[in-house]
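Write out the bound-state structure for uridine-5'-diphosphate.
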Amino acid sequence: MSPRAVVTGGAGFLGSHLCERLVSEGWQVMCFDSLLTGDAANLAGILGQEGLRFENHDVTNHLDVDGPVDWVLHLASPASPRDYLEHPIHTLKVGALGTLRALGLAKAKGAGFLLASTSEVYGDPKVHPQPESYWGNVNPVGPRGVYDEAKRFAEALGMAYHRTHGIPVKIARIFNTYGPRMRKDDGRAVPTFIQQALIGEPITVHGEGSQTRSLCYVADLVEGLWRFLVSDHLGPLNLGNPEEIKILELAQLIAALGGERSQIVFVERPEDDPEVRCPDIGLARVVLAWEPEVSLRDGLDRTIAWARESWA
Ligand code: NAD
Ligand code: UDP
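---
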């Protein structure tokens, strides 16, 4: 029998790429998504295929699944700062109640559990690059706290289920990932800059743009998630691309690739915006024999080509 996975948030950016990969590996996939920030069209390539079942469902409510389940992959959550600031309470609910439902389902079915966690658990880090052993520097009462603390709670709940009920729990700490299927209006730097560069609007850099991020192309991230899933490794694992860049340089690069001679404008920096972010992927290199292969330039080229077609 082929393995059966439940994927929450499977109609989102990362979730849809992951569902495609699982189906192509011969897995049966049951996708639950409320379409809050996702779109069923993201699954168009596999909808209707025997391996995929889709249900419009809010996973903060009870999850009911017939038959055996081998893995519960919990990706449901608003993910961009614009989205989670627009849905602050829902973000906390899906990190808390949604994770509880997903873990409860894994326990009932004797399945393993993988959480899509985030580099945001490291907050505005005082250790750079960030290894899994770093506990982070998060402001719980700042605006970003709704996302950071939801994910930190989800990690803690996952480990409690692991220790108490013996469920295999994997925690993917995902660093900034970009690629086709991002929404042009999700507010994240890459799609925002691309959209601005394609229509010749000013590119909005927050602050002076000296803050850094490390950007991973979606195909590399999905390969990392897949290897993590089929590995023996449990607990937290960083997945991301350690190629670090200042946001101003990212804006300049995307402006040049867009070809419309967009100007750069400097606008107000959001509260608690982390100063630096870069994954230490030493553990993933050892336990998964994985590292990203797509350069930033190449990944941006691919994403821009997709955006030209899809956002027109
Ligand atoms: P996304 O917004 O495209 O996907 C999230 C999906 O979850 C959407 O389809 C949304 O409709 C769904 N969802 C939200 N609340 C739900 C609920 N209550 N019930 C069912 N579905 C619900 O964002 P993404 O970038 O694909 O992120 C996917 C996951 O990966 C998130 O958990 C996010 O925190 C995590 N992550 C992403 C990144 C990144 O750079 N893309 C980085 C770190 C972590
Ligand atoms: N950013 C920016 N202009 C924008 C959108 C984002 O300068 O229009 C900055 C943002 O302040 C942050 C970085 O780009 O410093 C990455 O932002 P994103 O929302 O992509 O990811 P996150 O902050 O969650 O890492």
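---
DSSP finds nine helices and 13 strands in the chain.
The chain has two domains: 4-177+216-239, 182-213+243-277+294-310.
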